[in-house]
Amino acid sequence: MKNSPSLIATSCLIVFLLGLISCQESARFTALPISHTGIEFENTLLEDEFFNILTYEYFYNGAGVAAADFDNDGLDDLVFTSNMGNCEIYANKGEFVFENKTPGSGIVTEGKWATGIAIVDINQDGLRDIYICFSGPYGAIKRKNALYINVGDFKFIEKAADYGLADNGFSTQAAFFDYDRDGDLDMYLMNNMTDETGPNIIRPKRINGEMLNTDKLYQNNGDGTFSDVSKASGITLEGYGLGLAIADFNEDNWPDIMVSNDYLSNDILYLNQKDGTFLNVAGKVFQHTSYSAMGNDVADFNNDGKIDLIEVDMLPPTNYRQKLMFGKTGHDRFTSEIKSGYEPQFMRNTLQMNRGINDVALPQFSEISFLAGVYATDWSWAPLWADWDNDGWKDLFITNGYPRDITNRDFVDYRSNFHQLNSNEIFEELKELEGAYLGNFMFQNNQDLTFKDVSIDWGFDKPGYSSGMVFSDLNNDGQLDLVINNTYSKALVYKNNGQRNTKNQYLKIRLRGDQGNLQALGTKIKLYANGQVQYYEHYLTRGYQSSITETIHFGLGDKPQIDSLLIQWPDGQVNQLYNIPSKQVITIEKKEIEKKPSNFRPFEVVKDLTETLPTFNHHKKFYADFNLQPLLPHKHSQLGPGIAVADINADQRDDFFIGGAFGQSGVIFSQLQDSGFKTISLPDDNSNFEDMGALFFDADSDGDLDLYVVSGGNEFEAGSAHYQDRLYFNDGQGKYEKAQAALPNISSSGSCVTGADFDKDGDIDLFVGGRLTPNSYPLPGTSQLLQNENGNFTEVVDQLAPGLKNIGMVTAALWTDYNADNWPDLILVGEWMEITLFENQLGKLVLKEGLPGIDASSGWWNSIAAADINQDGLTDYIVGNLGLNSRYKTSVESPLKIHWGDFDKNGNLESIISFVENGKRFPIHPREDLFQQIPQLKKKFPDFHSYGKAELSSLLGKDFLEKTKNSLTVNTFSTALLLNRGNKGFERIELPNMAQISPVFGIEAGDFDADGLMEIFLAGNFHQVEVITGSYDASFGLLMEVEGDEKIRVKKQLIGLGGDVRAVASVFLNANKSLFHIASKNNQPAQWVNLHGKKVMGTPLPEVPGAKKAMLYFKNGRLRAKEFYLGSAYLSQNTNHIYPEPNLIKVIYYDKDGTLIKEHHL
């Protein structure tokens, strides 16, 4: 057969265009021209004085796109929704050439406001049908959703009413899934509409289905019709829904529903109760969420077999646009929202990393968007997870842009005068408002919980107003391509050129399920290849108002085949395939493979290993630190409480003290012989203080343990008697009385207390860390060196430790013989401080500077603890920092800084934190916060635009910045390990990123499971943070193990230790011979944790009086040093037990002079 001239010409044109495109393929992706794709769709909006963003809130929310094979030719076709025009459908003709099939297709939507699109084979005839949502400021008739039944050859018949799905609410998106597991597909419908109250007005939540924006659930009746079962199913909560995802979040094999809500309304996670009803548990599983949440997506991004979640918001990544958006921090509003019953939410993207299932069968999530580097992508709409480089790890793409930037604070202020204008004048002003004309974001997975912004490198350099998007392998070359629906510009098709420059492999899977669910929606897949596991759940509604391809795609890296493929079908049946070659498409039909019932679990249920033990509920009265100092990065009134553990009555049982808040006394718990504890109260006036660190030690050398308690906080004026520390003498009978004259009269807000005989006179002396000068951030506290003279303490810091008194905002300290000269040295850490070492030179403490490993180490350090981590006979140190999951970023080259002074000459101290962007230093604070402190700056920077451009030098003056000594820097926020290299100093090693997800306070190290390897236990969060950043709440405790080659691996991720954790200490329970840890929490009950959930320790070896350190010898030749401490980590004191580990053969004990005093053989 001869080819026609027109066909030959078309073929030549395609060859020419492909050749032209290939010249542009240096980047991974190429935006194909319309002349090649033939896709001319554009979501065009026509605004006027009566219909615009001010009259209709969702005018610029964009539209969706779907990829599906409508003609079953093996190529995905495309459908675009349009807000004001007609939705359009395009047939894929191969090689990225598409034909517009809209004319004659039966798809007619013009005059209606189309939003989201969902693809489903609703009548189970093997042809994909189209469900389109409608909204807009129209009457109910124009808001009826449409169901277009595919009758073949790109012809469709609208049948929504026949199926009972012609909902006329305000729909944003629909998702099809089998919620009741009866074998057919039901539908969840997400709605979004404001009412006269306003979407951000704080008011009681509306939870009984009375709002227009309450979502709906439609049950498939099995006869070609659907019924609204929303109220009966518990779908009754209000919400301004923009993101919808279906997944089995709690791994019970029943699909759950995740809804991301805009504005004040909280996000919703409806857990399937397996009885036709749903229960919202969002507030129990997420520590916080995005405030103005847009689209969302679910996938296992870190290949741990658990479903993770991303939802996007509007936080810009650049200083200038952030300054245009934020007027002030808004602490009072945040507090009001919480008091009104709303759950915490912050204005940024949130990446919820799934940590596993807790002991009440709920998933727990850590929000790590700051750590991951994906927290700020401006006015974002659709996030999608997919492996675009086929390396076996999911990358992240986010669409972006908004035609009128109504968050611009200058416009917001100007808009307040609009009541004086008529509608035409308002519209003329509105037309002058610029849009957020921005590029989209592509983030490559670094495979370590972080992502690299490769947007420009991968070819995404075109700005626009993008909304819905999908991925699909449009040319079947094994690489995922991208399709984006834009407002005011043509839709974009991005070709993935990755196959040209990588050897990475792939596997594509097409599923065919049972009748009723031929698409096999709800299928779960685990793929195993060369020690790596990938997990996928098969649902099509993803991102924002869009529906992705049905063909499942796995990148495999350089693996030529997969070891096994585990498939769980929606009904729970499981199939497994082995040794499948890569670089192919496989079709799996359920009926063709032998069914093997299995309890398929993508991840192991990890229980919160706690036990019912006596606890203490810390009650902290609210104090508004930010009202006095609006520029604070966090509060200082909620830093406690501490914990001290010791045997206070010499019965060989661990007892402990836990501190109280102001107005609440701390309590001593004394362990009983059989089981349990009794409480011992301190004198009544103990409640007049804010307890920080505490220490049991023999202050008066009478053979029993006395108690020192540090007073701290930020609530009182400097010099207040509430900051006076206290010493309680033990009368030998377990009763404690306050020592009236044993301490110097020093009223300073303190932090830690730690003891050692630093002058070797036979009694215990003390270091007390000065935390701060109240309400004068960042001025240092007053640290004390208290020399013991027969139970009376004298301040000798100026005489014996020059420079120590005002060294900084000390958070933790440790007496340790770092150089093995038998004189205890002092290591300090603190906020805006370096790791600081005072070397003990024959009883005088001398600042040691320039020591390798601790130079250039300034951070916001919280904690320090010691152990011989690598078991080489030298003491190493674990140092807890802020971590990397924060908006505060720093480096040695571009450090975070703080400057302070009385800038406005009003007699009060102001402090300004600054950061570097593109080589320029800017203040980090919003305009209104800074001007509240320094009102004079308003004249110099009269609007948000000028402030957004203002460098720090223009605020404070170059002369001041060059001459002032009132500045501090931070070089690192990483929690780290200091390996002791002897006379070579220290080697500082950043701990794995899992240890950087939250501030570290509690630290303990030891071989807790007696396997011969040292473990590091970390805990900590901090909720009292300025609300642009939001709470540091991602940690649930972490256990790491140090292997023989000094490599550190994460051993256990979900210990169940969440909340506002501070001190952590170990307590040996004699009754069941188990080692437990107790953690104090600020304004929350303390919590007990058993790290391994079993008895792994024998009874501790007898203590040796006078011993200051020991060397432990093991059968395999290992040698472990152990110092005995009085106080360590954050506000903590642990006992100095040595446990009879299986391979331990002897312990040699040494006194303060290094003299051997006992050798214990096992």
UniProtKB/TrEMBL annotation:
Keyword match Signal: yes
Protein's UniProt name: ASPIC/UnbV domain protein
PANTHER family assigned: CARTILAGE ACIDIC PROTEIN 1
Record-linked PROSITE patterns: EF_HAND_1, PROKAR_LIPOPROTEIN
Pfam families linked: FG-GAP_3, UnbV_ASPIC
SUPFAM superfamilies, per the entry: Integrin alpha N-terminal domain
InterPro entries membership: Crtac1, EF_Hand_1_Ca_BS, FG-GAP, Int_alpha_beta-p, Integrin_alpha_N, UnbV_ASPIC
Entry keyword annotation includes Repeat: yes
Source organism per UniProt: Cyclobacterium amurskyense
Keyword tags: Glycoprotein, Repeat, Signal
Top-level taxon: Bacteria
ASPIC/UnbV domain ranges (all copies): 520-587
